[in-house]
Design goal:
With 230 residues, the chain is α/β, with parallel strands linked by helices. Helix content is 38%, strand content 17%. The protein has a seven-stranded mixed sheet with strand order 3-2-1-4-5-7-6, sandwiched between helices. It starts with 5 loop residues before the first strand and ends in a 10-residue tail after the last strand. The chain binds zinc ion. Zinc ion binds next to loops.
C-alpha cells in the first residue's frame, strides 16, 4: 500500500500536462511523489494510435519526474457515472492513498473532461466510506483540487511555475501526435494542431500577470481549503 503525495486524474494522457504540468514538475523536483492516472487510452482521438499515445505518455512522465503513471483503460467517449466506473477510480485512490487528488475542472468544452470531473468527485467521496468495497482500506483525501484543460473560469488558487515552465513545454512536446500536424502521414487538423500549445502558454502567462511571476497554473476548489495566514 502506497502513501503518495499527489494523484492526478486525466481523461486522456496529456490532460494533466496541459492543466498542471508545471505544478507537477515543481513538486516532483521538490521530492514529492506524484502519480498520474489516465482514465482512458484516448482511442477516439483523431490523431495518433493507442500505442503511440502510450509511448508519448511514457516520455512525458519521464520529463516530469513522475513516481508512476497508470491507465485504467475505461472507454474513451464512454465515461459514465456507473457503479463500475466509480469502483475503478476508487480502487486507484485506495491503491495509491494520496494526500491530494487533482481532477479536470467541472466545465470544459470536451464532454469527457466534464464526465471525468464528476466521476472523480464521486470516487473521492466513496473512497472514504469504509463499508464501500471493504477489501481495500478506506482513504480520506485531504483535498480535491480541479485543474483547467480547455476552458478557464475563475481560478481560486494559483501556483508559480515560472522555474518549471520549460519542463512543462518539454512534457507537452512529447505528445507530438496531438500537437504537430506533421507528426504522422494521415494526420488531420484539430483544435490541438492549430496553435493550441501557444494558447496554453498565453493562459499561463496571463494568470501570472501582476504577481511578478512569468507563468502560473490556476486551480479551483469546491470545498474551502484550510489555511493559516500567518
Ligand atoms: Zn483530454
Amino acid at each position: 500500500m502506497q502513501n503518495i503525495d499527489i494523484l492526478v486524474f486525466g481523461a486522456h494522457a496529456d490532460d494533466a500536462e496541459i492543466g498542471m504540468g508545471g505544478t507537477i514538475a515543481k513538486h516532483a523536483s521538490a521530492g514529492r511523489s506524484i502519480v498520474i492516472c489516465d482514465l482512458t487510452e484516448a482511442e477516439m482521438s483523431s490523431n495518433g494510435t493507442v500505442e503511440l499515445r502510450r509511448q508519448e505518455a511514457d516520455a512525458a512522465s519521464a520529463v516530469l519526474g513522475l513516481y508512476a503513471r497508470e491507465n485504467l483503460g475505461l472507454p474513451d467517449r464512454g465515461l459514465e457515472l456507473s457503479r463500475g466506473h466509480i469502483e475503478r477510480v476508487v480502487q486507484a485512490i485506495r491503491r495509491w492513498r494520496p494526500r491530494l487528488v487533482f481532477a479536470p475542472y467541472w466545465v470544459d468544452r470536451h464532454p469527457d473532461h466534464v464526465q471525468a470531473s464528476k466521476l472523480i468527485e464521486e470516487a473521492v467521496f466513496n473512497a472514504k466510506l469504509r463499508n464501500y468495497l471493504p477489501s481495500l482500506p478506506a482513504v480520506q483525501v485531504e483535498q480535491l483540487i480541479y485543474y483547467f484543460i480547455n476552458d478557464m473560469e475563475h481560478a481560486s488558487l494559483a501556483v508559480d511555475v515560472s522555474e518549471h515552465y520549460e519542463t512543462k513545454r518539454q512534457a507537452l512536446r512529447a505528445y507530438r501526435s496531438q500537437f504537430e500536424l506533421s507528426a504522422s502521414a494521415n494526420a488531420v487538423e484539430t483544435p490541438l494542431t492549430s496553435g493550441y500549445l501557444e494558447r496554453v502558454e498565453a493562459r499561463d502567462s496571463l494568470l501570472a500577470q501582476g504577481r511578478g511571476w512569468a507563468y502560473a497554473e490556476g486551480f479551483a476548489i469546491k470545498r474551502p481549503y484550510g489555511i493559516s495566514f500567518f
